[in-house]
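debug: dumping io for the single-chain case to check the tokenizer round-trip. Nothing else runs in this session.
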Amino acid sequence: MCFPGGVIRSTLTAEPFTTARLDVVPLRVDHAAEMAVVLGDPALHTFIGGAPGTPEALRARYERLVAGSPDPSVSWCNWVLRVRDAGRPAGTVQATVTGRDHAEIAWVVGTPWQGRGLACEAAAGLVGRLRAQGVRTIVAHIHPDHHASAAVAGSAGLSVTAERQDGEVRWRLITAP
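debug: decoded output
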């Protein structure tokens, strides 16, 4: 959809999807309290910066995210990963979609859930969903020392590039039209 001035509106929304072990549900403001627990380990912030957020701080952040981007050419798509067998949240995935065909993605899995392949599963599911929606370029930015996250990107089909942004390595997947 085009807006005046030729701006291409991004129309992708965070719809639920599933993987083998995960229900990936759109982020809601009321996820803040349980996600504060999932994301509460300071070690999670080693590579992404910042510090664990309080439930109140996450609630305010989630209110902004759920409201969406003020730029009509950008969609903020955010999901919570729920481990189906446990019925509990384990992390998040997100995609910032620009126009109709470019997305920057990220993932975070809480410390107790790491080492089980959930990030790989979630990232691959997200990439598949984006590709099915016509997104042609998918990018992730990963700290050069975050080997686990680099493995997730590779397993989701992204390839490392020589490009850097803010000290992070750019990983990219470009699909055929």
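debug: round-trip ok. Residues 118-132 form the longest helix (15 residues).
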